[in-house]
From TrEMBL:
One Pfam family, short name: HIG_1_N
Subcellular location: Mitochondrion membrane
HIG1 domain mapped to chain residues: 1-91
Protein name from the UniProt record: HIG1 domain family member 1A
Upper taxonomic lineage: Eukaryota, Metazoa, Chordata, Craniata, Vertebrata
Keyword entries, A-Z: Membrane, Mitochondrion, Transmembrane, Transmembrane helix
Coiled coil regions in record: none
Length: 93
């Protein structure tokens, strides 16, 4: 091994990178959590789907998860555009 990095320092670097990215664009983790929630709800509803075909149920679950992610991305873009163009800027700094 040419590198002196330990596994724990590698994990700390990745964790801090994730936290930094989450602070820069907070809607990405929200989208990820929403997607996971939609998938979990879809799997929970799988046992009581009735006469619905499995493929139709999975398509509905996929559309719901994608819709949540697209909504989170759209809100993130609107938020970043607001911060960049419309938010009052401090001239003192």
């Amino acid at each position: 091994m040419a590198s002196n990095k330990t596994l724990s320092s590698y994990d700390d670097e990745n964790e801090s990178k994730f936290m930094r990215k989450a602070k820069e664009s907070p809607f990405v983790p929200i989208g990820m959590a929403g997607c996971a929630a939609v998938v979990a709800f879809g799997l929970w509803r799988l046992k009581s789907r009735g006469d619905t075909k499995m493929s139709v149920h999975l398509i509905h679950m996929r559309v719901g998860a994608q819709g949540f992610i697209v909504g989170a991305m759209t809100l993130g873009v609107i938020y970043s555009m607001y911060k960049q163009y419309l938010a009052p800027k401090e001239d003192g700094k």
